[in-house]
Amino acid sequence: MTNGSQSVAAPTRGTLQYFKWAFIVTIVGLALGVALGWQMTGTVAGTLGVFFICAVLAVLEISLSFDNAIVNANKLKDMTPAWQRRFLTWGILIAVFGMRIVFPLLIVVIAAKVGPWQAMVMAASQPEEYARIMRDAHLPIAAFGGTFLMMVGLSFFFDHEKDVHWVRWLEQRMQKYATIRGIEVAIVLSTVLVFSHFLDPVASEVFFKSAIWGLLTFLLVEVLGGLLDSSQEMLQAGAKGGLGAFLYLEVLDASFSFDGVIGAFALTQNLFIIAIGLGIGAMYVRSMTIMLVEKGTLTQYRYLEHGAFYAIISLSIIMFLQAFVHIPEVITGLGGATLIGISLWSSIRSNRVAEQVAE
């Protein structure tokens, strides 16, 4: 990390150095998985099974979060050094412990109408019932998270100041209509209405209300972020991306985490194994975020963030579709990774063409 007068944008490390803490957390996490597996089963086979599930969950989290790291880097590059460090320290703690442990417990507290301690006891002694409650809560979670992520994705493309286009024929049209106030909200609400129309009346009401809360959360975070950051600019000229941006990134991470947390129950019903596996993956996302900011990768590969935001929109649609049918997490992860991979390839090809023209 850097001192208070410097940004994390100074490239001073090799690639592997960025993942030092991720490697350390991986070793500690897998060791905890082995200890937990032995304590639970008392057999070598059972211990190896828990070890394997922790490793698979870590890979699942990484594959689902490529786009998360890119979007984080896109926001972080405009934040002040102090707020960059706060997000990369306190923010990651909130992401690992809040979303991977507290969030599933909170769902059970609300859905089962029990206290936090009872929810923790249920996670330890009644994992099947705990997992059932989590699965039953998937519809409102999918509607909330899908709506929030769709607003994030569309807001990137409906920007009249955007001057770099990857899928030119589409993005130029979106930029053209960006001056129409509320166009993203209209598109998202129309999409929500279409999906809710095909659900039964009870599920449709739950889906629609949750989607509205997702939309309101996005708008409130945007408004609150603008108010907080503008007040900070009055106190400190030139300050960018303060508390408002921090809150935005935390809600964004929560929305990205919904799918991984719910999907993890397909592999294990043990909350503590899920926390270990997804926590390891979250540390790699943090390392990727820092590397993208310091190395200026988003500037070097101009279409990379476009691919990430297309992946976000596709993820939001997948979350909506999961109101009707289960979509394996491997498809979700591979879909996002493919879009990002194509955008990276397009960026490299564009750079080569630019170099040839310059010569």
Commentary on this structure:
The protein is mainly α. It has one domain (15-358). It is 80% helix and 0% strand. The protein has 16 helices and no strands. The longest helix is centred in the middle third of the chain and has 35 residues, at 201-235. The chain crosses the membrane at residues 21-38, 44-66, 87-112, 137-158, 178-199, 264-285, 306-324, 330-348. Keywords: Membrane, Transmembrane, Transmembrane helix. InterPro entries: DUF475.
Short description:
This protein has 359 residues and is mostly helical. Helices cover 80% and strands 0% of the residues. The relative contact order is 0.18.
Q: How would you describe the shape?
A: globular
Identify low-pLDDT runs: 1-11, 233-240
Largest sheet: none
Structural class call reads mainly alpha
Measured between the Cα atoms of the first and last residue, the distance is 38 Å
Question: Helix amount, in percent?
Answer: over 70%
What do the pLDDT scores average to? 78
Question: Which labels suit this protein?
Answer:
0% strand; 16 helices; mainly alpha; 359 residues; globular; disordered N terminus
Topology of this structure?
Layout: H1 15-18, H2 20-41, H3 44-64, H4 66-76, H5 81-112, H6 116-125, H7 127-136, H8 138-157, H9 168-176, H10 183-197, H11 201-235, H12 243-264, H13 271-294, H14 297-300, H15 304-321, H16 329-358
Helix pairs in contact: 2-3, 2-13, 3-12, 3-13, 4-12, 4-13, 4-15, 5-6, 5-12, 5-13, 6-7, 8-10, 8-11, 8-12, 8-15, 10-11, 11-12, 15-16
InterPro entries: DUF475
Pfam families: DUF475
Transmembrane segments: 21-38, 44-66, 87-112, 137-158, 178-199, 264-285, 306-324, 330-348
